[in-house]
Amino acid sequence: MQILRSKLPRVGTTIFTTMSGLATEYKAVNLGQGFPDFPMNGKLVEAVTKAMQQDFNQYAPMPGWLPLREALAEKAASLYGASLHPDTEITITPGGTYAIYTALTTILSPGDEVIVLEPAYDSYVPNIEVNGAIPVLVPLNGHDFSVNWPAVHAAVSPRTKAIILNSPHNPTGAVLGESDITELRKLISRQDIFIISDEVYEHLIFDGKVHHSMLRYPDLLERSFVCFSFGKVYHCTGWKLGYCIAPAALTKEFRKVHQFNCFSCHTPSQVGITEFLKDREEYLQLGVFLQEKRDRFIELMRHTGFSLRTSSGSYFICAGYEKISDERDSDFAIRLTREAGVATIPVSAFYQDGADQKLLRFCFAKKNETLEQAVERLASL
Predict the structure, then answer these.
(1) With a threshold of 0.85, does the pTM exceed it?
(2) Are strands 160-166 and 134-139 parallel, antiparallel or unpaired?
(3) Residue 282: count of CB within 10 angstroms of its CB
């Protein structure tokens, strides 16, 4: 019998699967996984239903429904001043995570190195390793999860092929600022490095901060794969639909991988979203909507023993529990689910070495009653 040699020998069941299973088993309030428990806009449901009824049910073109790509080009021009060609620079994908994987697969060869800032979304490192490349891990600054640029510069080697950026950041809610763009420019001036920019939370940004998308900066965009998610914008994470923006030469190679993997995404959803994108307020007001939930959660958590870190974007906020326990974060998260009935994600899950900073990640993209129920349970600790 032939023995299978695993391409990901260190990968097992993720903490997200474990915590969701425990949440179900113990009927816990699930503030672990990053998805809303409130309904999406019914008008979008109607638009997709209408598309199905009008028989938009066969394969869309491999790059995506052209009217959707045209609408996205208009959106990028309006928000970021980007001049994009919808036919050659935008590709519709089955989710943002797929877009990131495909971008990495497009550029990586065995032995290449990719700089990954930790804590990091859990797909990045496996995506790199499955392509035979090497993740070079650089910790973010511990006090505010800002980028430690001296450490990034020190991590560059002749084999460095790319850097992955994520803003707003999962799991911490940190966002890039103008100084980060300055440092990024210094980095690429030293060496020809690709940028994988994970911007799935582009509209979930708070406190009047600016989203420094790579689309704003032509010199950065020319070497970037910029990845987005409709699921995070329109509260439909289960649709698994996103897109990747890259210069034409990079998109050409991206699509070579894409066409032999997914090839085409769900057509009715693309047609429905095209219509729904005309309502700009639906995504422009998203930051205000989620900031209200963040602020509500922060206010509720004042009555607990948790100490909240700053979150300037995304669905998430991290909290320390040093006043409650000295357990490892993974052990405490499991006990919290079993005994208090609240599921979270230990931040050590976002480090390859399991670094334990005694932090848990909470998702506040929930109904107010869900947040209230969860914090009532947490306050009893």
Answers:
(1) yes
(2) unpaired
(3) 16
Count CB-CB contacts under 10 A for residue 332.
20
Residue type, 90: I
Residue 16 has pLDDT above 90, yes or no: no
Indicate the class that CATH gives domain 15-40+284-378. alpha beta
Output b/e per residue, 205-239; b: 16+ Cβ within 10 A.
Answer: bbeeeebbbbbbbeebbebbbbbbbbbbbbbbbeb
Name the amino acid, one letter, at 175: V
Q: Please confirm whether the linkage preceding 168 is cis (ω < 30° from 0).
A: yes
Give 107-155 pLDDT, tens digit per residue.
999 999 999 999 999 999 999 999 999 999 999 998 899 999 999 999 9
Where do the structural domains in the chain lie, given as residue ranges?
15-40+284-378, 42-282
Q: Give the pLDDT score at 14.
A: 80
Alpha-carbon span 327 to 330, nearest angstrom? 8
Torsion angle in degrees (nearest 10) through CA of 369, 35, 312, 92: -150
Would you say the CATH fold of 42-282 matches that of 15-40+284-378? Answer: no
The fold for domain 42-282 equals Aspartate Aminotransferase; domain 2 (3.40.640)
Tokens standing for 62?
């491999």
For residue range 272-307, list pLDDT tens digits in order. 999 999 999 999 999 999 999 999 999 999 999 999
